Amino acid sequence: MASEDVNTSESAVSKFVNLAEEAKLAKEEIKPTKYQVYSVCKSLIAGGVAGGVSRTAVAPLERLKILLQVQNPHNIKYNGTVQGLKYIWRTEGFRGLFKGNGTNCARIVPNSAVKFFSYEQASKGILYLYQQQTGNDDAQLTPLLRLGAGACAGIIAMSATYPMDMVRGRLTVQTETSPYRYRGISHALSTVLREEGFRGLYKGWLPSVIGVIPYVGLNFAVYESLKDWLIKSKPLGLVEDNEIGIVTRLACGATAGTVGQTVAYPLDVIRRRMQMVGWTNASSIVAGDGRNKAPLEYNGMIDAFRKTVRHEGFRALYKGLVPNSVKVVPSIAIAFVTYEQVKDIMGVEFRISD
């Protein structure tokens, strides 16, 4: 999700650094996971810290994005990026800008850990099947097969931590005036489980899974296309001796991520709206106030798409896209700098080359 989020599905560090590394490894057909357990743990910690810092830095934009996605169309409170941020500040204060960020940060390390080991196992399984099919025991994974392994790992990691993302959405939109408030992650998880059952923790899971395909595919395709174009045309002296600098590579990653997120964004909107269904005493932002108060009801992903477009128009599928796009570049820059600093402190070996 896509954001995030499809958000979707990626840790903060893997969104910008590992994209470049995986593209390089895919071309060279080198196995990316040959670290010792100690090094892996240190890398996960460094990535977790970097992801936490970067997500916290852009948390106000992330919260506003979700508010724009799910707010009642008959009771508009947030109308644009600047006005929305000002409204949050005026009505909820400084802390209101960071609601839901704790849950978002708490997902980083478990999501990254599951993704890392899932990628390794998926790569082994796909390679075994590929070798059996070709009859060549020395065959290596192709870029496309690596892409498939990465998508599998992303889906598994997203599924494993999805309940935390689900309650994050609700924690993000509740306000001080909400009829009934979740007191935190544990309380939200236990309340949803008790009132809506286990399936309630996975509302919106299907569009999240579907969103992984265009997001990951476009990320890879756009990144590789941009890199190849830069190497061939060498515009503005950005490429020297067929080498792309770190800043240029990060810019390519940001562009690729933005394209992927934009295409998969409607699925992210639908995912968030489905997460609000069945919320007893839902926030007024979702249910509305007074005569405009009405429960949000969808009978699945297709029904959510149909009702959203019918009642709010096609543009509703891109609500919150502006703050979501604005936060991409600063998030990448902050995460990269933080990761490098933590890496130096902890002695984590990480090389960015092409």
UniProtKB/TrEMBL annotation:
Pfam families noted in UniProt: Mito_carr
Signal peptide: none
Annotated TM spans: none
Classification via SUPFAM superfamilies: Mitochondrial carrier
GO biological process: transmembrane transport
Bilayer topology: Multi-pass membrane protein
Any single GO CC term annotated in Swiss-Prot or TrEMBL for this entry: mitochondrial inner membrane
Keyword Membrane attached: yes
Subcellular location per the Swiss-Prot or TrEMBL entry: Mitochondrion inner membrane
PROSITE patterns named among the record's database cross-references: SOLCAR (PS50920)
Entry keywords, A to Z: Membrane, Mitochondrion, Mitochondrion inner membrane, Repeat, Transmembrane, Transmembrane helix, Transport
Start-end of each Solcar repeat: 38-125, 141-229, 244-345
Family the UniProt entry places it in: Belongs to the mitochondrial carrier (TC 2.A.29) family.
Entry protein name: Mitochondrial adenine nucleotide transporter ADNT1
Organism: Fraxinus pennsylvanica
Classification of source organism: Eukaryota, Viridiplantae, Streptophyta, Embryophyta, Tracheophyta
